Amino acid sequence: MRVWQLLGYLGLLPFIGLILMSLTNVSLNSITPEQGFIFYSVCILSFLSGTLWRKDRLVKNNTTLILSNLFCLYSFACLFFPTSIALSLLVFGYIALLAVEYYLSSKNSNTLNLSYFQMRAILTFTVCALHGWAFIL
Predict the structure, then answer these.
(1) What residues pair up with 31 in beta bridges, in sequence order?
(2) Residue 133 contacts residue 83 (beta carbons within 8 Å)
């Protein structure tokens, strides 16, 4: 397993830990596990939006740079919604970002890394499922 794959999968641990904390009613000072889950999710979605910056050389019209910033602002805006709405919006953001990234990479077959997209699909599905679980808690 490559380092980028290991780091990708290790990134699931805070999501899982915060759900476990929610199940056991453990909180961190004045932050609830649900708030921590949303905070972490916003950070990860913002971080992932940076993947579009390397795709800009394929489009050559700054579209991906603008999309990257829009995804980042979108995730930040999720902090201001009630928990159930924020969780739903974040799920949509993860799926939309994966779709945009795949579309841009598929336009240039030289940059389509199947092992990367396989990992991203697994992680995106898992993160969305964890958001669903957090939603029902």
Answers:
(1) 28
(2) no
Q: Which residue reads 């603008």 in tokens? A: 66
Distance CA 40, CA 34 (A): 10
- DSSP state letters, 64-109: HHHHHHHHHHHHHHGGGS-HHHHHHHHHHHHHHHHHHHHHHHHTSG
Q: Tell me the one-letter amino acid at 77.
A: A
The model carries a pTM of 0.92
pLDDT tens figures, 71-107: 999 999 999 999 999 999 999 999 999 999 888 887 7
CA dihedral 9, 84, 36, 40 (to 10 degrees): 40
